[in-house]
Design a protein that fits this description.
The protein has 13 helices and no strands. The chain is mainly alpha-helical. It has a single domain, classed as Up-down Bundle (Methane Monooxygenase Hydroxylase, Chain G, domain 1), CATH 1.20.58. α6 runs parallel beside α7, α8 packs antiparallel against α11 and α10 crosses α13. Bound molecules: protoporphyrin IX containing FE (HEM). Protoporphyrin IX containing FE binds next to α3, α11 and α12. InterPro entries: Trp/Indoleamine_2_3_dOase-like, Trp_2-3-dOase_bac, Trp_2_3_dOase. This is Tryptophan 2,3-dioxygenase.
Length: about 280
């Protein structure tokens, strides 16, 4: 009989008493003991892990978007591009993840839906922070976080900063494009309103990509991100309709009708509108 293969003979580290192991480094004890189903339904574990993994990817997305914005502000455009490409890939990953959740039928979800109480992704502060960071700002959506001072502060702090799109438009202004003063001095807490001077600037970039290559690339990185983000919204609303039909959400909104309305949100409106004019 051949002897069982022992990787230790080739140098694999096998003893971790007093040394940092994989489990220690990744904090897996905390992560893998954070699943607390509130029912005996088999599918609740899928539901919890799907949300938790989405939140982990959102954490990384925030890390990358904030850094990309910082690099844009400092003129390190190339570094920002790399990070924005990664963010689009993160959303692609999140999009693929819906396939796993879609294996849960309405009958299976109904078995544990009551256990969620009024909790809902609507209260995901990281999702809201992503929206605020890229540019979709709505102070009304601070309210579900009022009971948590730390989260409210994090969201408020973001509203005081220029969003990723504000920064991109300032890059246009720095490059010499005539951007209206109302836009450059706008109240950062307010939603972005599509502006003709911004659209004219992007249009010029698209009319001569060779001359404005970096800005052209920036515009396409932003569109790429929004494209994947829109797909996430679409996948979400389709999954929701498939699982709960037109019932109200646990978060209290009209459910599918609320989410359909969110499909109309444009993060970078001028970048979409100019396409009709080319
Ligand atoms: C069967 C699975 C799911 C159902 C039935 C569902 C249902 C809903 C509904 C009805 C809403 C509207 C708010 C409300 O009234 O509750 C909502 C919002 C939301 N859900 Fe889900 N959801 C599901 C899975 C997920 C997953 C896996 C995530 C990932 C984190 C997620 C994240 C969100 C977010 C971020 C919102 C807020 C969207 C916005 O305000 O634009 N949902 N969900």
């Amino acid at each position: 009989m051949t002897e069982a293969y022992d990787p230790a003979r080739e140098g694999a580290q096998m003893a971790f008493d007093g040394r940092m192991s994989y489990t220690d480094y990744l904090g897996l004890d905390a992560i893998l003991t954070a699943q607390h189903p509130r029912s005996t339904a088999h599918d609740e574990m899928l539901f919890i892990i799907q949300h938790q993994t989405s939140e982990l990817w959102m954490r990384l997305a925030l890390h990358e978007i904030s850094a990309a914005r910082g690099h844009l502000q400092e003129g390190n455009t190339r570094l920002a591009f790399k990070m924005l490409s990664r963010v689009a890939r993160i959303f692609e990953q999140l999009n693929n993840a819906w396939d796993v959740l879609r294996t849960m039928t309405p009958s299976e979800y109904t078995e544990f839906r009551d256990a969620l109480g009024e909790s809902s992704g609507f209260q995901s502060w990281q999702y809201r922070l992503i929206e605020f960071t890229v540019g979709n700002r709505n102070v009304a959506l601070l309210k579900p976080h009022a009971h948590r001072e730390d989260l409210t502060q994090a969201l408020e702090a973001e509203l005081a900063r220029p969003s990723l799109y504000d920064v991109a438009v300032r890059v246009l202004a720095k490059a010499g494009f005539a951007i209206s003063a109302d836009i450059l001095n706008r109240d950062l807490r307010q939603p972005w309103r599509a502006d003709e001077s911004v659209q004219a600037a992007w249009r010029e970039v698209y009319c001569d990509p060779q001359k404005h290559w970096e800005l052209y690339e920036l515009a396409e990185k932003l569109v790429d991100f929004e494209d994947y983000f829109r797909r996430w919204r679409f996948n979400h609303v389709t999954t929701v309709e498939r699982v709960i039909g037109f019932k109200r959400g646990t978060g209290g909104t009209a459910g599918v009708m609320y989410l359909r309305r969110m499909l109309e949100v444009e993060l970078f409106p001028e970048l979409w509108h100019l396409r009709t004019e080319l």
